[in-house]
Amino acid sequence: MFVKHAMRFVDRGILMCLVLIASLSGVQAQQTTWPDKPIKLVVPFPAGGPTDTASRIVGQRLAERLKQTVVVENRAGASGAIAAAQVAKSAPDGNTLMMLATPTMLAPHFNKAAGYDTTKDFMPVATVYDLPIVIVVNAALLPDVTDLSKLIAHAKSQAKPMNYTSSGVGSFGHLSMELLQQLAGFEMQHVPYKGGVPAITDTIGGVVPVMYSDLVAALPHIKSGKLRAIAIGSPQRVSVVPDVKTISEQGIKGYDAVSWGGLLAPRGTHKATVDRLANEVQEILAEKEVQDKLRDAGCIASFQGPAQMGQRVQSDYAKWGRVIRDKNVSND
Known about the structure:
Elements: H1 2-33, E1 39-43, H2 50-66, E2 70-74, H3 81-88, E3 96-101, H4 102-110, E4 122-137, H5 148-157, E5 162-166, H6 172-184, E6 188-192, H7 196-204, E7 210-214, H8 215-224, E8 228-232, E9 258-266, H9 271-285, H10 288-296, E10 300-301, H11 306-326
Parallel strand pairs: 1-2, 1-3, 5-6
Antiparallel strand pairs: 3-9, 4-7, 4-8, 4-9, 4-10
Helix pairs in contact: 2-9, 4-11
């Protein structure tokens, strides 16, 4: 009887070992054969914007380096939430990626039924770009507003809150201005538009005197003199507008508002696949040609690996969530 039980125990142990070996072999096979089919890179916005442009620049170089097709697929809607919810449910095989952008990261704060948890449902791969944001004014309407302190003084002198605009309720420009008002102790009235183009157009036209815009949309009009840039939201100055001081330089110490984008994979994607992708992205972003192409699109090449990107997602999600709650921002 003892021998029979012992043999049964041995057989069970052998079976468990065989299962473990098969499982490890499967993992090893995926790691050594990936990528064995085309990679889908989902962009949660329409074609033509900075997120789409950055995705195509990096996607092309990934395809060349991995010797595998990278298909960029645009799935716009609900600040990117539609695409993110679908990617979160995709197979974690390294063949589906998404270019996360700040609006998509923050969308669950506005929509509890977004269908994904930004901080839990994805594997951070690598940051790709920073997208600076800039406060611009209509110089004809505000000829004396040449820096941030003068804008704040002008706003405080008005009998009722002066207007400013952004690309929409809950947009990064909107949240960044709300944070600035909170820290600097002044008040302005948000006039939201549905997109950056109409907001820029009406700022140039004098309908609204101030806009908090991404640099991509504002730069041509800054260069032409139609708009005056008075402050950059990032901690450091930006090379394409080197004379524009940061908000922190202008007295609001510690102010930091940078929109950004980076690659995500579905949760459960193998670490070896994520690490290889991160290494490829790091080398791609080190190329001067890629940096120049991103700069032409208004973006700044910015690499952080999986761990750092994960910390950035956690930190920004919490930080801007507090602004949304404190200022009662809703896009309903």
